[in-house]
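Minutes, methods subgroup
Present: GH (chair), OT, SY

1. OT presented the first of two proteins processed in the latest run. Sequence and structure tokens recorded below as shown on screen.
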Amino acid sequence: MKSTDSSGAVLSANSRLRMAYRVFKGAFFFGRKGLIIWDSWEMWVMQIVITPIAQIGFFAFLSIYLNYPSSVTQYIVIGNAIQSMSFSAVFAVANITSQDKWQGTLPSTMVTPANRVALFIGRAWFQVLLSALIAAAGLVYAAGLFGVSFASADFAGVAVVVLLTSVAMISFGLLISAVGLYMRTALIVANIFLFVTLLLSGVNFPVSALPGWLQPVSWTIPLTYGTEAIRMAIAGSSLSALLPVLGEEALDGLIVMAIGYFLFTGFESLSRKTGRFEEY
């Protein structure tokens, strides 16, 4: 099936890819500028500096209060350091469609002939950088305040794990954002998912401690692979040793992205029929 541009001219596959890239690049820079202009510096400080220390500190001090061994506390600290990125990677991305509804721009966005996938992924992509910075701040706290040793760490592996996990978790944010096309807001689902990741992703305890029927669910979440990989990298595993886990995480992220795309197209069609684009 051939596509046409706004003038009705038939576009080749290469032309469609070039246009999709232009849409992606424009959406990325628009999203970046919008976030920087819209958010105050206090909000940036809160996301990058305060969010990870608040989350890590809560669970770390709870484990200390319960007299857990220091090794268990460090296990919890590392898990929450990487999970803290979810507030940006999932919550902020899931809010894209809800925010457009609130601002009254969603109907105009949805009638544009621009590639939908490129448009929404481009708008979400800036959160990859922000999520990675939040996780990096969490790992700095883990070392400086909670005594996690990085003496044996493979820092290249740590960096790759943080970036890949950020990208993979963005896919869940986009999936939830697709739900927001039909629901009044996707934030309710995003909030539920954040707590699910704390429970199922091996953040505070091993996945093997979960009931058997829940463990397969854990491995559908990219963060589960990310928490396992970051602990391996800090313990000294080389990047090559991490490749099997990282490969599984990347595949999981792609599958979630594909599911999100089909949900997006389905909810878009349903929302057009029911007028949900303007409901907030």
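2. SY then presented the second protein from the same run.
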Amino acid sequence: MSDADGAWVSLFSGGKDSSWALYRALEAGLPVDRLVTVHPAGDSYMYHVPATELATLAAESIGIELIDVEPDDFAADTAADSGVQGDAELEPLEAALEELDADLPGGIAGVTAGAVESEYQTSRIQGMCDRLGCELFAPLWQEDPRDLADAMLEAGFEIAIIQVAAHGLDESWLGRTLDREAITELEALHEEYGVHILGEGGEFETFVVDGPHMDRRIDLEYEREWEGTRGRLRITDAELA
């Protein structure tokens, strides 16, 4: 059982949702001592997948030590039951947190997560926290997507779109900043195609290049890769400004 005065750990990909959960935790005065990034090898039911290697630079800018979790094979098995697959994907993360719980003074008091609407993810993370004897801080959970988007922008988050896969999102969205104009367009695409304005259904993925919790902006150089109806940025260089 972890000490209530122990450390907090943020599940962190560098994307907007996990970054917002971290930011809100810091704002609330929670003592976040580690960031933990899972690097899936392929498609994943549980985790943000693209460009997780950039989390190292983000952690350096934020000033919190990063722990990498790199399982041998995280590719989603489409033949497997999704519940079984999700549980299997959670195991390396839980093992890493158990080690941290033993190593950190006072253990792990709590974990932050950026889930918005996914019961699939949140129930598993909550179960993991219950087994670890720690709290879960999920400030985005079941909040209004537009309110969340506005709050991120008002706080000063600069959010880059790094992958898209949805009707209505073409190659021009790759590398685009998720600003108020983009949010307005996404609301129209939600009406027409059902696109979630925060990309909660995998319509798009993001990376936070700057924010109030970061000391230095991250500059990206990239090439666009487009395959019919989906695409991503291939990052060719990334550095702290």
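Chair's summary of item 2: Residues 145-240 form a domain with the putative n-type atp pyrophosphatase, domain 2 fold (CATH 3.90.1490.10).
Next meeting: continue with the remaining queue.
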